[in-house]
């Protein structure tokens, strides 16, 4: 029994360190206690505590499904520990999340403020509901001990099947949705990991991890309490897991092949090495080993294979969760000691509760017996104080609490002074948007920019609701949306002709053969030229000829027409400054009139003479933005 | 030496302070758990709570109680405790250190009052030690830590008073400061593991006595058995305990 005492002492010690670090984290904030930053906001806590934790707890829904739905009664002996592990695992996830959230007291917001577009919203709800389901599934076990709770217990046992089904549904949803979280960042996750079927991969790997976790935990607790291992049962479990491993491998590589990313496998970057290590210990090696029946029942391998696979899949979660992200501000993120301590102590806490439950309630068929609680045992004396510490219960209580406080005190002493002299949580209240009337936008800071009538945009797009139209589009590598995100026709070719308008009764009301000739194919080339009807379309003496019915985007047309003409005239007039930007964009960095967006020339006055910018332009080519004006010249 | 002082005021202080706080909380919780268990084990579950609360409050201010028997001791003891609690917590220099390190602080007492309280603590501490050592009954009741504690508690007060009040050279000052810091740390470190834990256990002490001095029926037999005797040795007078449980057991045996 010394094993279990030593193990518990270690867990309490870890918990003590965690208490010290956790206190510092909540008093002084995330900035000083972690290596997380604005460019690396998700680290070990999300990768391991949340994503790994949820996957580690997948054993619960798999085994309840196996036993209560597929009626494989032989697994009945390990369903209770699996449910307990799942229950505690999810609580650990919630606790771990509290450490990671910047404003943990707002965790309930998702219940009231719904954002149904977010996978995180789904994950949050599913985890919450599944935790409830697990509580209801687990509750009958401790309730056995209290006769007062019999009614409730029987009611819950009747509800078991619906609960199991709900558990499976919820698990399927959120195990995969954790993968969906990363679908939003195709530019960030390394191509070896990013895949449109990340949710599927997450789900399959969660199943394998659940199975492996159940076998590992059974093996470990058997060792801890010196009880008999369910070797045959574990062998069957591993045998089933083998097929899931195989499916995982096929899907993973199939996906890589389908996306054409197999080429990445040959590279020498550290991510590639990481990929191979991960996939090897997750699935490749286990699937080979588990195919050999002798190895499947060998106790040593029953230790090694689950550990290997668990490590591999948790590594996968950490990888997807942030380790292999690219474009992370070129900062290397390594979890700090404090982060590791918190993660370890969350696990230690869950393990302690697990051990308590196992000793107190009927989780296993046979409750572990503690030889020290035998009343005929002669009490032992503490070697230091030479006094009896009392009954084992009292003595252990004394030792564990001592380990806890000593670790906490040492933890506080070891915290760097930087952590402790921090000014604490700096409040940064959300400021109201400045929303100036007109803003000077000069993204590349070259001094050439454009006056952006901000107030006007707000007015035209629905007042305060308009902000999200531009500011929260979350385009990759972009903080606010570009003009062209809304003004899509800004640079695009467009139809200057408007066939439908010419043909419709409410427009020009022309018949087909008013323009097209009867025996010829009806297309632009064979139709009547514009100027036959619109005599004033091309002004007298214009340098522009009509060639087709495409117009370039209005920004381009403005630039090309004006700059083209100006640069042409610059030589003849001997005014080399004529085509310079500053001739038109005079109002640099000054607040200008709300009409700044309008063409500075009196557009309206010349409206009758307006020239359709119909120029010779191949519609297949993208607009040439680098060489403004050339298209006009070419067209002549 | 400066580095050692800073270490004593920094990491070592944090270690000792946290250990003191958590250790006191620990011993408080353990005592309560032990009490609850003892109460559950006891056959006699009657606890005179009102009487206990009265007694506890009375011993918190024992002057009146001691006035009839040992008025001098009562006065000295209360003075010692008052100074011991107030000076370390509310000395302006200490409050300032809290302000600088953790960012919050509380009110402080004026310098003059602090000095007087310090002198009172030093004098009363030494007097308490002498009273214990000089009386025969006191010596008989004392353990080693009972002699050590009054002297140890006085050390940081003496050094603190010297540091703040007398013009000594920088080397001597640092030495005094070092003794001050390290002895205070040592005190904090030892508080939860020695009799000074009474600082948090005072509200419980009367309760513990009332609850735990109730032996379960047949406790004597268990002691004898634990000590390894087959039957009662000759030097033990076998107790005639006829508790309700024993009577009940006897009746059951007779009935069978």
From TrEMBL, chain A:
- What Gene Ontology molecular-function terms does this entry list? electron transfer activity; heme binding; metal ion binding
Q: Name one GO cellular component term.
A: plasma membrane
Question: What's the superkingdom here?
Answer: Bacteria
Q: Where are the transmembrane segments?
A: 9-30, 42-70, 82-99, 119-140, 161-187, 193-212, 233-253, 273-293, 300-320, 340-358, 400-417
Identify the keywords attached in UniProt to this record, alphabetized. Cell membrane, Electron transport, Heme, Iron, Membrane, Metal-binding, Transmembrane, Transmembrane helix, Transport
Principal subcellular localisation of the protein: membrane
Q: Name one Pfam family in it.
A: Cytochrom_CIII
Annotated Gene3D superfamilies: Cytochrome C3
Hey, which family's this protein in?
A: Belongs to the NrfD family.
Q: What is this protein called?
A: Ni/Fe-hydrogenase cytochrome b subunit
Q: Which organism is it from?
A: candidate division LCP-89 bacterium B3_LCP
From TrEMBL, chain B:
- State the UniProt keywords alphabetically: Membrane, Transmembrane, Transmembrane helix
Q: Does the keyword Signal apply?
A: no
InterPro entries found in the cross-reference section: NarG-like_sf
Residues passing through the membrane, by range: 12-36, 72-96, 116-135, 147-168, 180-204
Protein name in the entry = Nitrate reductase
- Provenance organism: candidate division LCP-89 bacterium B3_LCP
């Amino acid at each position: 029994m010394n094993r279990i005492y030593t193990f518990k002492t270690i867990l309490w010690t870890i918990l003590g360190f965690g208490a010290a670090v956790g206190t510092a984290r909540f008093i002084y904030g995330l900035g000083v206690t972690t290596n997380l930053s604005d460019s690396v906001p998700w680290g070990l806590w999300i990768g391991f505590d949340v994503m790994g934790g949820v996957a580690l707890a997948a054993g619960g829904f798999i085994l309840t499904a196996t036993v209560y739905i597929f009626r494989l009664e032989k697994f009945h002996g390990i369903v209770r520990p699996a449910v307990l592990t799942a229950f505690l695992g999810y609580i650990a996830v919630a606790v771990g999340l509290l450490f990671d959230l910047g404003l943990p007291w707002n965790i309930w917001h998702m219940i009231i403020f719904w954002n149904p577009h977010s996978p995180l919203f789904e994950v949050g709800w599913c985890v919450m509901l599944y935790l409830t389901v697990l509580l209801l599934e687990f509750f009958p076990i401790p309730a056995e001990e209290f006769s007062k709770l019999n009614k409730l217990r029987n009611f819950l046992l009747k509800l078991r099947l619906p609960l199991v089904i709900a558990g499976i549904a919820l698990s399927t949803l959120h195990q995969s949705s954790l993968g969906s979280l990363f679908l939003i960042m195709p530019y960030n996750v390394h191509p070896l990991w990013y895949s449109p079927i990340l949710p599927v991969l997450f789900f399959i790997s969660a199943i394998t991890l659940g199975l492996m976790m159940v076998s590992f935990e059974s093996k470990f607790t058997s060792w801890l309490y010196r009880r008999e291992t369910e070797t045959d049962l574990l062998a069957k479990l591993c045998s089933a897991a083998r097929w899931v491993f195989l499916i995982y491998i096929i899907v993973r590589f199939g996906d890589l092949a389908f996306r054409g990313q197999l080429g990445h496998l040959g590279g020498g970057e550290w991510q590639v090495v990481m990929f191979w290590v991960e996939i090897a210990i997750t699935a490749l090696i286990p699937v080979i080993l588990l195919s050999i029946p002798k190895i499947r029942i060998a106790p040593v391998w029953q230790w090694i294979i689950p550990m290997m696979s668990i490590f591999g899949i948790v590594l996968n979660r950490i990888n997807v969760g942030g380790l292999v992200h690219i474009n992370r501000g070129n900062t290397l993120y390594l979890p700090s000691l404090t982060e590791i301590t918190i993660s370890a102590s969350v696990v230690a806490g869950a393990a302690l509760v697990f051990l308590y439950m196992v000793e107190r309630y009927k989780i296993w068929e046979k409750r572990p017996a503690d030889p020290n609680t035998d009343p005929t045992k002669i009490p032992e004396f503490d070697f230091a104080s030479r006094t009896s510490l009392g009954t084992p219960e009292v003595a252990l209580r004394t030792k564990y609490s001592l380990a806890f406080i000593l670790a906490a005190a040492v933890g506080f002493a070891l915290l760097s002074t930087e952590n402790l002299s921090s000014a604490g949580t700096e409040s940064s209240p959300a400021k109201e948007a400045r929303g100036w009337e007109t803003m000077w936008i000069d993204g590349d800071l070259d001094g050439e920019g454009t006056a952006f009538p901000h107030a006007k945009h707000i007015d035209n797009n629905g007042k305060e609701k308009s902000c999200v139209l531009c500011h929260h589009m979350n385009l990759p590598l972009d903080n606010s949306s570009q003009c062209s995100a809304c003004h899509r026709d800004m640079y695009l070719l467009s139809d200057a002709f408007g066939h439908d308008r010419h043909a419709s009764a409410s427009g020009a009301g022309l018949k087909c053969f008013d323009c097209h000739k009867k025996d010829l194919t009806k297309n632009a080339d064979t139709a009547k030229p514009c100027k036959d009807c619109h005599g004033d379309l091309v002004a007298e003496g214009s340098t522009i000829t009509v060639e087709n019915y495409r117009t370039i985007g209005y920004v381009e047309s403005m630039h090309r027409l004006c700059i083209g003409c100006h640069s042409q005239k610059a030589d003849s007039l001997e005014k080399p400054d004529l085509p310079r930007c500053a001739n038109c964009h005079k109002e640099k960095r000054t607040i200008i009139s709300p009409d700044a967006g309008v063409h500075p020339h009196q557009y309206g006055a010349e409206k009758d003479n307006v020239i359709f910018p119909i120029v010779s332009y191949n519609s297949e080519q993208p607009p040439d933005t680098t060489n403004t004006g050339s298209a006009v010249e070419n067209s002549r | 030496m400066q580095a050692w002082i800073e270490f004593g005021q920094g990491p070592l202080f944090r270690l000792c302070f946290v250990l003191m706080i958590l250790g006191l909380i620990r011993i408080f919780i353990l005592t309560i758990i032990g009490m609850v268990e003892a109460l559950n084990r006891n056959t006699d579950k009657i606890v005179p709570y009102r009487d206990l609360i009265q007694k506890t409050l009375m011993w918190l201010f024992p002057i009146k109680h001691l006035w009839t028997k040992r008025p001098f001791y009562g006065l000295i003891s209360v003075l010692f405790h008052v100074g011991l609690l107030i000076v370390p917590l509310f000395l302006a220099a200490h409050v300032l250190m809290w302000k600088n390190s953790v960012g919050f602080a509380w009110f402080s007492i004026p310098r003059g009052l602090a000095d007087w309280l310090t002198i009172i603590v030093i004098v009363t501490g030494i007097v308490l030690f002498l009273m214990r050592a000089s009386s025969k009954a006191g010596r008989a009741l004392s353990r080693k830590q009972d002699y050590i504690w009054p002297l140890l508690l006085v050390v940081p007060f003496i050094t603190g008073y010297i540091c703040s009040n007398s013009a000594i050279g920088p080397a001597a000052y640092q030495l005094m400061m070092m003794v001050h810091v390290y002895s205070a740390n040592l005190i904090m470190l030892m508080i939860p593991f020695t009799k000074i834990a009474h600082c948090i256990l005072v509200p419980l002490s009367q309760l513990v006595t009332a609850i735990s001095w109730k032996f379960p029926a047949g406790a004597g037999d268990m002691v004898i058995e634990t000590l390894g005797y087959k039957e009662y040795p000759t030097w033990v007078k076998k107790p005639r305990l006829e508790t309700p449980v024993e009577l009940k057991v006897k009746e059951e045996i007779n009935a069978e």
